[in-house]
Every structure is written in C-alpha cells, then in structure tokens.
Amino acid sequence: MRKFLFVLSFLFAGLALDAQVLNLNAKSDSVDYDRLASIDELVNSYVKNDWVKGVVTLVVKDNKVVQYKGYGNARPGANTALQPNTLFRIASQTKAITAAGIMILYEQGKLLLDAPLYNYLPEFRNINVLDKFNEKDTTYTAVPAKRPITIRDLLTHSSGLDYAGIGSANMVGIYAKNGLFAGFNLMPKGQTLKQAMTTLATLPLVHQPGEKWTYGLNSDLLGYLIEVISGQTLDEFLTRNIFQPIGMEDTYFNVPKSKGDRLAIVYTEDSLHHIVAWDKGNNPLDAAYPLVNKTYFSGGADLTSTALDYAKFLQMFLNQGMYNGHQILSRRTIEMMTTNQLPFHFDGTNDFGLGFAIVTEAGAAKDPRREGSFAWGGYFGTTYWADPKSNLICLIMTQQIPNSHGDLSTLFKNMVYASLK
Hints:
Blueprint: H1 2-20, H2 33-48, E1 54-61, E2 64-72, E3 88-89, H3 94-107, E4 128-134, E5 139-144, H4 151-155, H5 169-177, H6 193-200, H7 218-230, H8 234-246, E6 267-269, E7 275-277, E8 304-305, H9 307-318, E9 322-323, E10 326-327, H10 331-337, E11 351-352, E12 357-358, H11 361-366, E13 374-378, E14 382-387, E15 392-397, H12 408-418
Antiparallel strand pairs: 1-2, 1-15, 3-8, 4-5, 6-7, 9-10, 11-12, 12-13, 13-14, 14-15
Helix pairs in contact: 2-12, 3-7, 3-8
C-alpha cells in the first residue's frame, strides 16, 4: 500500500510539474480551433496588402500553446518564411521583467516599496520639480519636491520622471542637453547605468511624486537600483534569477552573434505610408543595437526576446510565481503586482499595478480582455496580455514603427476571444 501511494504521489508530482511549463504539443478542449485558424487569414491579408512585413503570434490557453506561428518573409526580397522563434526587440516589455527583479529583492528583505529611494540611492535625496522652462536655451527653474520618490512610485510611473526622446517637450530638451536617452544603445559610447542615473538625479521631475501617472525613465532607475543592491549588473541579475530558472533561452541585452541571423528586421513607413526598411542614416537609432555589446543595460527598453520566451515569463505569473520547478516569486507578491496601486486610473479607464497596466471592470466592458488582465507592449510593435480569469496568454510581435495599420493587434485580440469556448 505504501509503495502504491508513493508511486501515485510521484505521478501526481510529475503532472504538477508538467502543468507549470508551457505544453507545445497538447490540444485544449476550451478552444474552437476552426475559429482560431481564422487568424491566419487575417494576418496573411495584412502581409499580402503590404501593411506589415512580418508577424509572430502566440496564444496559450490553460498552459497549452494552442497557436504559435510566423507570417511573412524573414528578409526583404527573399522567399524565406518568418519563423516563430524570430528574435524581437521587445523594448518596453523589458519593464515587467525589471519589475519582477525588484520584487525578488523585495522578497529577500533587501528593500521596502514605500521607503524613500534615497535610502538606497543617496544621490536622490534632494530632488526638485520643474517650475519654469525657457524653450530658447533649455534653462529652467525648479522647486523642492514635497516628498521623496519611493520604489512604488517608480514601479507605477508616478515618480515624476519623464521619458527621454518621447516625453514632454520640456523634459526631452533637458534630458538631451544632459546626455540622457531612452536606452536602445543611444547612450554615449561606454556610458554605464550608474553614470546615467547619477546624472538623472541632478535633473528636475516633471511633477510632484505621486501626483499623476507619467511614462518615464522609472524602469531604467529600477535597473540601477537592482545593480546597487545586488552587486551585479542588471544583465547578470536577470539572467541568474529569471531567465535561467524559467528557461528563457533566447532573452538577452546583448544577443550572441551565433543567433544574430534570427533577429527580425525593423521597418518604418515613408510619407505615403509605404513600408520601408529602417535607415539609421535618417534616425539616431541603429536598429542593430541588440548585436552591439552594450554597457548600459536599460531596464525599460533594451531586451531582445522571442514570443515563446516571453510567454514563459507571463505563465510564471499565471502559475502564482512558479515555472519550470522554480518559485521565482511568491503567490502573494504576484497578487500585489497584478493589483491596482494608484488612486486614479492611469489612462482614464484602466489601472496600473507593479509593472504593467491592469484592465478594470470599465475597461473589460469595452474590450474582450477580462477584468484583471495585465498587459503592455513595446516601441517597435510588440504587444502582450495575460488574462488570469481565462488562463490565457497572448502575444503579437512585429517590428515596425510607425504602423498605420496597427489595428492588427486589436483584431487579433478579438479573434482570440471569439475562439474560446
């Protein structure tokens, strides 16, 4: 009898372990595959009309990968199909991973979310807020902040930090004048995260901490905080604590040369909305930055990954912090990260947790994603969401900015939910 119970417990343990990881070879009884297949016609029509060059889509239902495909060509003029394991510049999808890194340190007792940031980074003790700005010479006046920045402020983009390059005109000018940019290897050659964030500490906030939601360099600063507290580079810390235990084998700040041929090409549009290859001669950003050995690890923008790797990361959240036999974060921490943290809606409708947007009841009334779904995307055209109530993960990945036919991601989302039984 004891032997029987031992064997039974072993089998159940094996089933539990299998449930923790994505299953690439299983069917789901909760999906209408005929309806799901209609996504092929949708995406192929966008490719045929030359509204997008290449797309990868991935759908996970109940830990089962029910759809994972590449569409379009991998290279201009080549009859080589885009593969599902194509490497994409995930840009701001980096932010949720950096947030998870911060929460790992939180669980280790190495930081408090509501402690002043200057407890860990003294250079942020005497912070100021922008008062008046002179557009002619980018000079400004500032007033003292009413309270310190906290780590929770950084995780929720309510610190008052703005974004270099894409933020408000005033702060874009101030940041550029002081050599601060939005990751993507745009920083001066050889500059480290420490050097950039030390400079950031001397510049004003765009508003008082906690006053409102402003998308900014918060995740870059969180990445620096991870480096200071852990004594490792952000690259080392995330690799050891997230990528390796989860099994994210294609996620990098610096993509190995051996995988360089899998990196997707970046496209843009001309004045007539024709898709053209990204030309670094007309843009300060060199799209080859994933292949350039960098020393500035942007916690908000610089990772390259695949749809499958990122789905593993999201499945860890749906598994209450567990993946591949490793407890990355505790159940309670996952609950905190996926719960609203702000006293206001960040976009007028939806909430914001510790690292990403969260769909509210009002948001779910306008959108097929159910209340509690968490989501974000990346600058070059990558989008993800995870829906805990539906046990669903979806990604649609492109590399095109701007994209006048960006409604593809919305149509994809609608069709995914239409396929659920």
